[in-house]
């Protein structure tokens, strides 16, 4: 089964260390979320997956990171990663470009490829690194129901030597023209779309969260919907 990051515990009232379940969070915040938005959350959560996650390694262009995030969110992939030489504080300076989609994703920032890859392996992912070399496996030949972390390298230099050496698979997009490479965000979008189609062809569905996991992620979305959702919930908990 794919890795899932959350337990059914929401610690919102830190001074009193109160813990609540996803059911309580959803019930408490339901009146503050419009009906159409609730229905949209339900539809989106049913199609969410952690089976594939995507890593942007040392990209120079924040716009490319934003585009990768946007594609991941649009295609129902919940987990994205950024390997950057910047500090986490410094990275926040370029996050404006993808602020809209980021709150619906689980974003992790890493200072080096080694830490990122080790963490992903511990979560059960095989490591795939995109490459334009001749020894690559076509994305069309891969089984995308297998938990896979895909690393997209720098716009000019590609993936780092470390990431390439640690890869379980070097993968590429089949191309038939004189051009042998694509913009990294374009390549990411194509790969994600293919992964979705492959998963649907094999399983009949893209989303793979268990019902209880869907409920937990639904509660997460309720809390992320408005900036003061956590404060509202804490106030309601105190009144009860």
UniProtKB/TrEMBL annotation:
Entry keyword annotation includes tRNA-binding: yes
Keywords of the record: Methyltransferase, RNA-binding, S-adenosyl-L-methionine, Transferase, tRNA processing, tRNA-binding
Stored Gene3D superfamilies: 3.40.1280.10
UniProt name for this protein: tRNA/rRNA methyltransferase SpoU type domain-containing protein
CDD domains, A to Z: SpoU-like_TrmH
GO molecular function: RNA methyltransferase activity; tRNA binding
InterPro entries with a match to the protein in the record: Alpha/beta_knot_MTases (IPR029028), SpoU_MeTrfase (IPR001537), TrmH (IPR033671), tRNA_m1G_MTases_N (IPR029026)
KW S-adenosyl-L-methionine (keyword) present: yes
BP terms from Gene Ontology: tRNA guanine ribose methylation
tRNA/rRNA methyltransferase SpoU type domain residues: 54-192
Organism per entry: Selaginella moellendorffii
